[in-house]
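User: I'm writing a tutorial on reading structure tokens. Could you give me a worked example: one chain, its sequence, then its tokens, then a sentence or two explaining what the tokens reveal?
Assistant: Sure. Here is the example chain.
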Amino acid sequence: MESLGTALPAEMARVRDKVLPEYDAIPGGVFAASMMRASLDQAAKVLAEGDVVGMIEVYRDLQGYKL
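And here are its predicted structure tokens:
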């Protein structure tokens, strides 16, 4: 079992490096890409603040982004 402190940055990297570029590459993906960027910004914020409840919420949010 992975800790949230390890799992959240890994999920952020997955979305940023794998999922987001795919949506950026298609014209209809602009809205979804914007949502992903907002989620990534929120993830960075709660991670820096040490907000555990926020980390759980944004982790689940990031997991929802699929290719």
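What the tokens reveal: The chain has one domain: 4-63. Residues 6 and 20 are 20 Å apart (CA to CA).
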